[in-house]
Amino acid sequence: MKRPVAISDSANFYVSAERIFDPTLKNVPVIVLSNNDGCAIARSDEAKALGIKMGTPLHHIRDKVDAHGIRVFSSNYTLYGDISRRVVEVYEDFTPNVEIYSIDECFLDFVGFKDRTAHAMALRAAVLRRVGVPVRIGIAPTKTLAKCANDIAKKNPIFAGVLDMMDESLARWLLPRVPVGDIWGVGHKTTDKLKALGVHTAADLRDLPIRQARAVGTVVLERIVLELQGEACLAFEDVEPQRKGMAVTRSAGTPMTDFDTLFQAITAHASRGAEKLRQHGLVAGTLTVFFHTNKHRPDRPQYTASRTTRMTPMSSDTFDLIEAARRCAEAGWPKSDAGSFGFTKAGVMLNDLVRFEDRPQTLFDQARPKSPALMKALDDVNDRFGKKTMVLASEGMKQAWRLRADHRSPRYTTRIEDLPVVR
Questions:
Q1: pTM of the full structure
Q2: Which of 59, 101, 138, 310 fits a disulfide with 149 by CB distance 3.0 to 4.6 angstroms?
Q3: pLDDT band, residue 250 (cuts 50/70/90)
Q4: What is each CA distance from 344 to 191, 296, 333, 339, in whole angstroms?
Q5: Do 349 and 324 form a contact (C-beta atoms < 8 A)?
């Protein structure tokens, strides 16, 4: 018996999150910008209707923004992350198994519900009432078909935001109307290859011979074909898999031209990485530091550096990670003409992650009984009084490298001083 799986995603999620606390944003064009207020990464339907494309730099659409009164926001990931958490809480009231796929998408186990459409409608209404975010839901026997159903529900108001495609006859009628490039997992290059073979729709791809699919797009495309045929190849992950690696990277608001400024940024990224490790109960085996100049400014001197070091012993201690990060940064720093480079991005990557209790120990490890208590105190202070209340001195005070975010909305749900005031 086929297992119904649903996927729920939020419409224009970042814009929807901004609209929760500002009713004046409804029915007007809104865009949210990437880090450093660079380009549009989320658009309301009204902004899309004005021709604002995904990834368009803000300075290219200044005239349009002024002419049409487009409301512009810097990305506010603290707010978006908290709204996403609240949406997932609603999902968990409607199904015992939720797989978080991204900040605005979750797979939901719909096994056991007789009237799946009514259940999805009730879930949709609950998310809108309790959080204020509109969502669309697609239901099907495989994840690929569920994504397809969700996309159809998104583009066709006739489905009122919910499409149950468990019925094979309905899938047979709809799939010929879905462009092959819209299928989850089919990229641009694969789309071009498929079109050259006369495969233009989801139905065409479903009927492609398996061996031919593998020849065109390896085992990945073969799996997509099987999923379109209704054979589940992607398991429902009701237990979150352990992370193998993580990264903290940021663009700089102002190019970093000296080592001290660069190391302030790297200290901040390593501190955040250590904090995330401890939140997940993990330790890191290797640490990589990278930094580079602006690749889109060929008229400026270019330099890229990346250095990796092994953590011995494996650690999530902020001091250990920053010490390792400094070794990498110093090794990668240009040996001549350093001042001529303006570094615009830096980051720290942590790999070979294992659970703290599973970490390998060597004969010569030094006992450090105070380290866990010190890190707990650091985390407790920042949890209670706000992020960055206590930081290492090497992170600096002025932090000229910080991101530009001239249009950021308040962090309504995570900072007491940002709570909206009712007059």
A1: 0.78
A2: 138
A3: confident
A4: 34, 11, 14, 13
A5: no
